[in-house]
Amino acid sequence: MMDIPIPQPEDPAMKQMTDIVIVGGGLNGPSLALGLAQAGFDVMLVDARPAPARAERGFDGRAYSLAIASRRLLQAIGVWRHVAERAEPILRIRAGDGRVGHGASPFVLGFDHAEIEEGPMGFMLEDRFLYAALRSEMANEPRIDLRSGETVTDQGTGWVRLGSGERVTARLVVGCDGRSSETARLAGIRRNEWDYRQTALVTAVHHERPHGGTAHQVFMPSGPMAILPLLGGHMSSIVWSEERNAATAISALDNDGFLAALRPRFGDFLGEIALAGDRFTYPLSLSLAERFVAPRVALVGDSAHGVHPLAGQGLNLGLRDVGALVDVLVDASRRGEDIGALDVLQRYQDWRRGEVTTMALGMDAMNRLFSNDNPVLRLGRDLGLGAVNALPGLRRRLIRQAAGLSGRMPTLLR
Ligand SMILES: Cc1cc2nc3c(=O)[nH]c(=O)nc-3n(C[C@H](O)[C@H](O)[C@H](O)COP(=O)(O)OP(=O)(O)OC[C@H]3O[C@@H](n4cnc5c(N)ncnc54)[C@H](O)[C@@H]3O)c2cc1C
Asked: Would residue 220 count as lying in a domain?
């Protein structure tokens, strides 16, 4: 085991000492804080965002598709019970080529939840419910010292400095601080990044006909569009990836203009549509940290890997990181090892980095293969989708993968 000094608390500049500092209170940070605190670690979670107002936020149009495995983790950390009634099960997935004004291609890859034993392949959950549930569960956990509206401004091996000037020592600092992770930068971890030159236009729509729990992935020449079922049957979340300049022009339109641009892409299979939430734009890029760990530092979620949203896997991957890191640290602690030692953290990296890289590159390849209008490629991929659809063994493997049920499963996800 490497001998890494932890600064001693006798130093008068050090006011606080804890087992683990988590930087970032998005979705992965709070999930990790709960998993670690419930396993017996003392945790400080520092998030730049101020504490939300007590009143529940209205629907803002942001929602996530959560795989079965992610639901299990949220259940294990006590969060799912707060949101179960608000999650819409995904019963079917349909994926295929599409063209503006032409609707979806007849060659469609379709999955049904009845093809696996575990039930719905996943759930759609609005950001406001998930975030509020994580916060309320953290408020009940005495081992979590929650610092909202506070930033980590500096960091060394085994310590961080907060914006307030306070210096906190810890055995481990975990970066859950998103794609522009300062935790990674300050630890000297570089990133591989490339720009997709696409922007995701995100919103929600009401529709006349019920969605029946079906998630649609339509591959348009300028980028994929996901239509994902939300609670109540008549509302869906839209993640519409467009070539960057076109997206800028579309996002500048007023709501009527935006709907006029959306309709020929969305098609009329759900009847009339109307906007149901705010509109957001996310420039899309791939961002992979070269390493997920350094002495006394680990990266989790988007700070380690930011992927294309076409298969809705970003948060699901982050929650698998959470489960894997909890397993590695609990195991190390039981054996009396130093949880911040590089050889311990390396086990987490060995577990996660390969799977994440494969998934990130797979989505990248799919985006490249489908985001074009080359007639030869179009025919090839239509035939390919048709062929996959006809192979029950392969279909089952793909469904289990989409549900997060393949690969090495952390304890919290089992
Ligand atoms: C259009 C789109 C659609 C998506 N849809 C899905 C989906 O359907 N399913 C899915 O699984 N994933 C989806 N994702 C991915 C998912 O949104 C992300 O993977 C996830 O939100 C990342 O969460 P995080 O907690 O790692 O990081 P973030 O949400 O980026 O949180 C980082 C936090 O760190 C804080 N922070 C940063 N720096 C500091 C600092 N120095 N000190 C203190 N705090 C700091 C910030 O305030 C922030 O709260 C989608 C992404 C996009 C763009």
From this structure: no
Residue 366: give the domain boundaries: 12-193+284-413
Q: Provide the domain count of the chain.
A: 1
* Chain segment 297-344, per-residue pLDDT in tens: 999 999 999 999 988 999 999 999 999 999 999 999 999 999 999 999
Burial letters for 117-156: b for 16+ Cβ neighbours within 10 Å, e otherwise?
eeebbbbbbbbbbbbbbbbebbeebebbbbbeebbbeebe
pLDDT-derived band at 1 (thresholds 50, 70, 90) equals very low
H-type alpha helices, 267-341: 314-334
In 231-381 the beta strands, taken as DSSP E runs, fall at 235-243, 273-275, 280-289, 293-294, 297-299, 305-306
Whole-number Å distance, alpha carbon 306 to ligand 1 midpoint, is 9
| Ligand 1 centroid from CA 271, angstroms | 33
230 lines ligand 1 (CB under 6 A): no
- CA of 4 relative to ligand 1 center, distance in Å: 31
Query: Any idea what the CATH number is for the domain that residue 315 is in?
Result: 3.50.50.60
